[in-house]
């Protein structure tokens, strides 16, 4: 127990205390403790910084896209899988769609570049067929949909696990009873399937909300260059760029802390709303 | 239930085929291109769906003692050492938290769950690693991610599911905690341990960001090499990627690096896949 606890104390609570740097003007030579306090100056600067608001806007935009397109994808896939009558086919499909989850973002981004890049599979095929090529990777307008498609490719399959388990627990008798009452497939889906898995959907939604300001740090950082910060900067990459590359440590820590506080507040709020609506929520 | 209509069946079949294709075709193309000869790749405009004359030349070139070989060694070492350390620490902590009456069990659990809700942030974590003098050491890639809270909860849930009678019987026979953990709990938890070790191994194998900020290029793991030479598009020849000095079509070489970075995962995956649902769900439901 001791090494484990020590790990949490040092690397989580230790780092947590190091958040104090957000209220300081960090001077590398003096170190964290000797650097002068500056109160909330870093935060004031942040709220007046157009780059910060750019990053914020990009983050929220991608988060909303993810919520609309990525969130329901595993549910849809799970419903498809659940409705397959062949056991073998279902298992095979499951094995295949879980796989991309285990690839690193470096591999996934490289893969997408090789398929969709300007000399990639798609464009080679298009130009061989005498058609216009499309620039997807370097096109700022395509960036946001692209990153959402990447997330779907990587993790929608993995996300089906929890929905499949929920679908498995739906009482067969409910289906039979409603079929006898004359409910067609759509009615059964609407009145039996969905209500049965509602707690799981809400649970995942709350967890997603708490994380809404994190929209895939590694993924964004890897691709930020191809379209530039105007379009590609999100809060996490903003923190990284300012603090680790730019050396503006106190300022970047302030942005990171702001993100953390908002995220935690969102989880609490979402959880409370869920309780109000009579759902289980996440506990905690 | 009545028989599904033909149209529904056909639609489902199409959907399944499309889903499978979307996942599998990129893999196929990458493996094929890495195996194709330079001439075939160039003739095809950079792409090969099925190599007519497969060759391992690209692999021989990059595994000839250059930077990829070195990075492969780093990645393997990091994955093995990291997984073992993480697994050991997670198991001990999970066991302590799963047993009732351990001193301070409840507050410690809350303390840990809190970190899940409120992670410390990138900059403070960076300052900490720098502050304790771990820059450019392999410890920087292991220590800050030693225990994953999700894995901890999965294991704790599993340990709690073991019948209390077994613990009591062992106690009556005079077994201590170590003995109970080693002889009774671990053998019964193989499925959960398998899943947790896979998760750790994959995360160490895939680790990229920490390596990119903490490590000098001499100590890069494979993912950072991949990032630099495949995504970043840095020229392969002038960086000593190929010591042999052969000029290989960059496409085949890049694909070969990509395949090497992916293959270990593909190899362990089928063995562990059957434990996924069980392991993941016990954790998810219990938490």
Automatic annotation (TrEMBL), chain A:
Protein name from the UniProt record: Sugar ABC transporter permease
Membrane topology type: Multi-pass membrane protein
A biological process term (GO) from this entry: transmembrane transport
Residue intervals passing through the bilayer: 5-23, 60-84, 96-116
Subcellular location: Cell membrane
Location of the ABC transmembrane type-1 domain: 56-270
Gene3D superfamilies reported in the protein's UniProt record: MetI-like
Cellular component, GO, one term: plasma membrane
Organism name: Streptomyces alboniger
CDD domains: TM_PBP2 (cd06261)
Family assignment from sequence similarity: Belongs to the binding-protein-dependent transport system permease family.
Keywords (A to Z) from UniProt: Cell membrane, Membrane, Transmembrane, Transmembrane helix, Transport
TrEMBL record, chain B:
Family: Belongs to the binding-protein-dependent transport system permease family.
Listed PANTHER family: ABC TRANSPORTER PERMEASE PROTEIN MG189-RELATED-RELATED, POLYGALACTURONAN_RHAMNOGALACTURONAN TRANSPORT SYSTEM PERMEASE PROTEIN YTCP
Topological type in the membrane: Multi-pass membrane protein
Organism listed in the record: Streptomyces alboniger
CDD domains found in the cross-reference section: TM_PBP2
Name of the protein this chain belongs to: Carbohydrate ABC transporter permease
Key word tRNA processing present: no
GO cellular component: plasma membrane
Pfam families per record: BPD_transp_1
Localization (cell): Cell membrane
Record domain ABC transmembrane type-1: where: 72-272
Stored SUPFAM superfamilies: MetI-like
């Amino acid at each position: 127990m001791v090494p484990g606890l020590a790990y949490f104390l040092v690397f989580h609570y230790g780092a947590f205390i190091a958040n104090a740097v957000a209220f300081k003007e960090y001077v590398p030579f003096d170190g964290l403790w000797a650097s002068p306090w500056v109160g909330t100056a870093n935060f004031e600067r942040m709220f007046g910084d157009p780059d910060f608001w750019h990053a914020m806007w990009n983050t929220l935009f991608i988060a909303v896209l993810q919520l609309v397109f990525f969130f329901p994808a595993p549910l849809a896939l799970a419903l498809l899988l659940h409705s397959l009558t062949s056991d073998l086919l279902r298992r095979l499909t499951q094995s295949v769609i879980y796989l991309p989850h285990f690839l690193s973002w470096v591999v996934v981004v490289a893969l997408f570049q090789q398929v969709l890049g300007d000399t990639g599979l798609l464009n080679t095929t298009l130009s061989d067929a005498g058609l216009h090529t499309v620039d997807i990777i370097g096109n700022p307008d395509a960036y946001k949909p692209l990153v959402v498609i990447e997330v779907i490719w990587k993790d929608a399959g993995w996300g089906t696990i929890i929905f499949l388990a929920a679908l498995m627990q739906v009482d067969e008798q409910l289906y039979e009873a409603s079929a006898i009452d004359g409910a067609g497939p759509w009615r059964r889906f609407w009145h039996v399937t969905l209500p049965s898995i509602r707690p799981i959907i809400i649970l995942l939604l709350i967890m997603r909300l708490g994380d809404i300001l994190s929209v895939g740090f590694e993924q964004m950082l890897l691709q930020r260059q191809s379209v530039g910060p105007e379009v590609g900067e999100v809060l996490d990459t903003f923190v990284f760029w300012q603090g680790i590359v730019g050396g503006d440590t106190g300022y970047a820590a302030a942005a990171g802390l702001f993100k953390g506080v908002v995220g935690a507040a969102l989880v609490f709020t979402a959880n409370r709303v869920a309780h109000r609506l009579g759902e289980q929520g996440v506990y905690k | 239930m009545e028989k599904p209509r033909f149209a529904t069946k056909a639609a489902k079949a199409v959907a399944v085929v499309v889903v499978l294709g979307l996942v599998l075709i990129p893999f196929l193309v990458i493996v094929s291109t890495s195996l194709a000869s330079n001439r075939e790749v160039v003739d095809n405009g950079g792409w090969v769906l099925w190599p007519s004359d497969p060759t391992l030349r690209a692999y021989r070139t990059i595994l000839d003692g250059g930077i990829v070989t070195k990075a492969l060694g780093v990645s393997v070492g990091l994955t093995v050492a990291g997984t073992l350390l993480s697994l050991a620490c997670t198991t001990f902590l999970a066991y302590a938290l799963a047993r009732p009456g351990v001193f301070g069990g409840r507050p410690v659990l809350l303390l840990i769950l809190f970190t899940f809700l409120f992670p410390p942030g990138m900059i403070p974590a960076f300052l900490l690693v720098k502050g304790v003098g771990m820059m450019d050491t392999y410890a920087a890639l292991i220590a800050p991610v030693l225990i994953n809270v999700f894995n901890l909860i999965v294991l704790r849930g599993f340990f709690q599911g073991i019948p209390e009678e077994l613990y009591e019987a062992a106690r009556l026979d005079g077994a201590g905690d170590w003995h109970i953990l080693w002889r009774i709990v671990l053998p019964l938890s193989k499925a959960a341990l398998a899943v947790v070790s896979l998760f750790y191994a994959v995360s160490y194998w895939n680790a990229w960001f920490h390596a990119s900020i903490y490590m000098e290029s001499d100590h890069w793991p494979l993912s950072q090499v991949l990032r630099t030479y495949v995504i970043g598009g840095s020229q392969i020849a002038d960086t000593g990627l190929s010591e042999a000095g052969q000029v290989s079509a960059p496409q085949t070489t890049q694909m070969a690096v990509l395949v090497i970075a992916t293959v270990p995962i593909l190899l362990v995956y089928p063995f562990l896949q059957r434990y996924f649902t069980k392991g993941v769900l016990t954790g998810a439901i219990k938490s």
